Amino acid sequence: MSLHLIEGFLEMLMTERGAAANTIDSYRRDMEEFNRFVTKKGSDLTSCSPSDIQDYLKSLDAAGLMNSTQARRLSAIKQFFSYMLGDDFRKDDPSLNIDSPRSQRRLPKYLSEEEVNRLLAVTEGAEPEKLRMASLLQLLYATGLRATELVTLPYPALRDQDRFLIIRGKGNKERLVPVNQSAKAALQNYLEIRQSFLPEEETHSKWLYPSRGESGHLTRQRFGQLLKALAFDANIDPKKVSPHVLRHAFASHLLANGADLRSLQKMLGHSDISTTQIYTHVLQKRLREVVTTHHPLADAK
Q: Domain locations in the chain?
C-alpha cells in the first residue's frame, strides 16, 4: 500500500507540477527510505506520527548527514503528506509543525578564469572526441546550462543566425540564453563530425550530442567523467571539476565582470532570485574593489 501511495505522489508531481526526471528520482529515493524507516518502527505512511518523522530526522543527524540534506528530505516528506491530506488518504498532516533543520548556505565552488582557460586549451585538436568536448565545454561555460539541459539539447539546437538557445528547464519552463561567438564556432566545428557519434545503424538523431547508449544521447554522468579526465589533462584536481562547478564559474565570472543579479537569474533559470543570491560574495568583492580604487578618500592617510 505504501509504495502505491508513493507512486501516486510521484505521478502527481510529474503531471500537475511538471517535475523533472531527476527531481522525481530524488523524491522516490527519499520517500522509499522514509517508508523503510517507519515500517521498521511498526508503522506505515497512513498512520505514522510526528514523533516518527522527528525520529527519522534524528537518525539522519546521527548518520552525519548535512542539514541541507536533512532539509531536502523533510521537504519531500512534507509535500508527500500534503498530497495525502489533499487526496483524503489521511485526515491529518504529521509533518505540519515540524521545522526544517537550519542549513548554513555554503558558497558555491567554482573555477578561476585561468583554470577554465586551461580546460579549454586541452580541448584543442581535430579529433572527434576533442571537437565534441570543446563544444560541450564552450556551451556550458558560455550559457551556464544545467548538465541535463546541455546533454539533452535537440538537434539542431542553434541555427547559423541564432543568437539565443531556447532552453526547457526545471518545471518545464522555457528561457532564452544568449550564446557567444566562441561557443558558436566550437559548435560548428563539432557539427562537421557529429555523424561519427551516431550508432552504426542510424543516420539521424534528434539529439545534438548523440550516443550509442540506451538514452540515445550523451548522459550527464558520462559528461561528468569526461570533464574530470579533461581536468587531469589540464593539471587541475579532478575533484574540483564537474558540470555544476562550470555552471557556478559561468555565474561567478559574469558577476565579477559587471552582470547584474536579475539578468543572471533569468539565464540560470532560477525561479526565485534568492537562489541566485548565493553569488553575492562575488558582488561584495567587486564592490569593495570599486570603493578602494575609485573613492576620493580611498588613499587618504
A: 2-86, 113-290
